[in-house]
Amino acid sequence: MRHKPGRNDPCHCGSGKKYKRCHMDRDGGRAPARIAPPPTRRRRRRRTDHLVLTEGERDAMRAAGAANAEAMDFIRDHVRPGAVLSDLDDLVREWTYDHGYVPACLGYKGYPKSICASVNEVVCHGIPDDYALREGDIVNLDLTTIVDGWHGDQSETFLVGEVSEEARRVTQCAFDCLYLGIEAIGPGSKVLEIGRAIVARAHADGFSVVEDFQGHGIGRSFHQDPGIPHYPDSYAGQFVLEPGMCFTIEPMINVGVKGCRIDKRDGWTARTRDGKLSAQFEHTLLMTEDGVEILTQTRRGPRPGHRF
Ligand code: MF3
Ligand code: CO
Ligand code: CO
Asked: How many Å apart are CA 89 and CA 112, to the nearest integer?
């Protein structure tokens, strides 16, 4: 049995090179140390300058958010047992045009109505039809208004009359998850922190977090970078939220499984796969040098800490 030379001894083949730079590898020894350092692959950071708003643009987003919040306060008094979803849609559309604004959903990628109305097991993108709300339903109304070309986007889940304990709990959870997501971030935070906070609460409550739909950057366009997953996605989560960026957080929380199915006939309505309840809340947010500013805070809607 031949004795192996040491790493720095001359190679047994007589080349004069050190063993580690010659036959050590082929003899089954450790791979020779690399001479050159591994190629430095520079992590290319996505360009995000265009997502950072000027002071004037931030004011424009504040105005859009405030207008949308006003629309939400307008419609909240109409949400009650017997209210017909398409009537709620008509009311919001008329209110919007009367104020000189534009409903963003109408005609967006072919969407036929001005708001989304998602009842019970509908996760999101419910199309208002002739359904009349019933005592015990939960309904999410998602409104988006364009003001001077800028978008304000928010949603609330409403309890229709007296609801089951399960319906109340999932609504409370979605509401708390929205604010926990907001509180988890500041200037320079990664998007990841939002999903971490949301998943922790939802799972603690025994509920699941929808992954098929996300929050989004928002501004002159309805949906833009960054994507805001409501779970800690290791890729999208690396995005850094800088002062001047606008985006939404809009967690959808399911009582049962997280999976959704989109209605084959209308191509929009997303329902839970198991038919169990789902609830959602959404705000449009501006990251500033001092922290997060909520642009779609209503005057009369639930505030952080609210108990449903
Ligand atoms: N408002 C929804 C969101 O939060 C999007 C609705 S798109 C529509 O992003 F076409 F369904 F209206
Ligand atoms: Co949105
Ligand atoms: Co929305």
From this structure: 11
Give the residues surrounding ligand 1 with Cβ less than 6 Å away: 105, 108-109, 111, 116, 125, 142, 144, 153, 250, 268, 282
The helix (run of H) or strand (run of E) holding residue 61 is helix 55-76
pLDDT digits (tens, 9 = 90+) for 120-164: 999 999 999 999 999 999 999 999 999 999 999 999 999 999 999
Pocket test for ligand 1, best of 123, 124, 282 (most atoms within 8 A of CB): 124
Give the confidence band of 13 by pLDDT, cuts at 50, 70, 90: low
Q: Give the residue among 164, 141, 270 at the shortest CA–CA distance from 214.
A: 270
Distance CA 242, CA 234 (A): 19
Q: What mean pLDDT value characterizes the chain?
A: 93
Q: Residue 231: exposed, middle, or buried by beta-carbon count in 10 A (0-12, 13-18, 19+)? A: buried
**Would you say 226 and 246 are in contact if contact means Cβ atoms under 8 Å apart?**
no
* Tokens (6 digits) for 33: 């140390």
Q: How far apart are CA 252 and CA 239, in angstroms?
A: 21
DSSP H or E segment with residue 63: helix 55-76
Report the residue count for the chain.
308
DSSP state of 115: S
Instruction: For residue 264, count CB atoms less than 10 angstroms from its CB and return exposed for 0-12, middle for 13-18, buried for 19 or more.
Output: exposed
pTM of the model: 0.87
Burial of 82 (0-12, 13-18, 19+ CB in 10 A): exposed
Q: What is the DSSP string of 207-247?
A: -EE--SS-EEE-SSSSSEEEEE-SS--TTGGG-B--TT-EE
Report the 10 Å Cβ neighbour count for 174. Answer: 32
Coil vs helix vs strand at 136: coil
Q: How confident is the model at residue 58 (pLDDT cuts 50, 70, 90)?
A: very high
